[in-house]
Amino acid sequence: MKIDIVTIFPEIAEAPLRASIMGRAVESGAVDIQCYNLRDWATDKHHKVDDIPYGGGPGMVMKPEPFFAAVEDLREDNSIVLLMTPQGKPFRQATAERFSQESHLLILCGHYEGVDHRVVEALVDEEVSIGDYVLTNGTIAAAVVADAVIRLIPGVLGDERSTQEESFSGDGDQIEAPHYTRPAEFRGMDVPPVLLSGNHAAIEAWRKKSAKSRTRQNRPELFKKRHDSDEA
Ligand code: SAM
Question: Which domain holds residue 131?
Answer without folding.
Answer: 2-150
